[in-house]
Amino acid sequence: MRVLIINTSERTGGAAVAASRLMKALNNNGVKAKMLVRDKETDSLTVAELPRSPLLRWHFLWERFVVFCRLHFSRQHLFEVDIANTGTDITSLREFEEADVIHLHWINQGMLSLKDIRKILRSGKPVIWTMHDIWPATAICHLTLGCRNFTTACLKCRLLPGGGSAGDLASVVWKRKSRMLEDENIYYVACSRWLESEAKKSALLKGHKITSIPNPIDTHIYNRCNRQEARQRLGLPSDKRLILFASQRVTNENKGMQYLIEACQLLKDIPQLGVVILGGHAEEVVSQLPLEAYPLGYVNDERRIVDVYNAADVFVLPSLSENLPNTIMEAMACGVPCVGFKVGGIPEEIDHRRNGYVADYRNAEDLARGIRWILTEADSEALSRNAVHKVVQNYSQQSVAMKYLDVYHQAMAFKHYRL
After folding, report:
1. Is residue 20 helix, strand or coil?
2. Which region holds residue 390: left if phi is over 0, alpha if psi is between -120 and 50, else beta?
3. Threshold 0.85, pTM exceeds
4. What are phi and psi of 2, to 5 degrees?
5. Cα Rg of the chain (Å, integer)
6. I want to staple 255 with a disulfide (CB 3.0 to 4.6 A). Which of 94, 247, 283, 321 is the partner?
């Protein structure tokens, strides 16, 4: 079986990391998998890129310009909205023609247009679409944040000026997505049971097969190592208890840094406590923290990232909306107990008071309570063992690859039946 995994980027962003890991997992379990990306970042032979063309940049810019106009020239929600009005037709590429299964992942920001996806669906090849967020089930947004319009039809969108209107951009794109899916079938795979449940409520996806499979992780890379040696390699203090926060962009409000800052105010009585910050713009939040902070900036070297996890006593991700965050999975694989809010797929990863602590949503006091419990009360070795066990049992390459193989076979059988 030949599977073509399609994602905008090869390595940048959580979806890219997950898609790359899935490709590796499939190849390690007897499937010939390749990736097709717009932004190729390595020299991997299993990753193909779109034919080089000035149009690739233009596709991105044109979509942003249209969105910018619809936002009345405000940048406030410019990158929270995607409309897939332009992209590249991939159906004539050799990689597409050779594939038995087409597996879409995160294809926004000029990678594929809705017309391109419609053409893929009409090719006759079975199509799987892994949902790394809710966008495939809504009109234009990646995070619903309490909005339930997608359960009937997206209109009067909260992201548009004045709260949108009956015939706004969301309504237009909703109709385009409906036409794209007309008389076609996609097997949707959510990365968490929570997102699966949300997707099944979407009026857009009514009648489509929707299931959930977690992202895989290579436990040969992400595993426990000596904490003091990891700290020494990173130049972190050996005598402190360290809280770790990690995000691609630390200042992203959705990642909840403000709640960690409030929680740290309540933890100042714990001696020798510090905060390690991993991600872009890390230095911008140092002055806001009441504890000594160690900004490491953005890191893309996997071995160094493993060291960062192993250097921590606890990993905290107070996100306001999440699917199944790779960072929690990575920390747990390294034996680090985690604390996060009860939102999205986080409670599926963290088993409360067994391998971490699930705090009440948007509750900085409970977040601090969870951090304190892990650092000063819980059996740290037991938490660490339980975290590793959870990852090995649920997120290993083989476990995830076998689940996807089953979906591929179902999709291929369904296509053959329809023909």
Report:
1. helix
2. alpha
3. yes
4. -110, 125
5. 22
6. 247
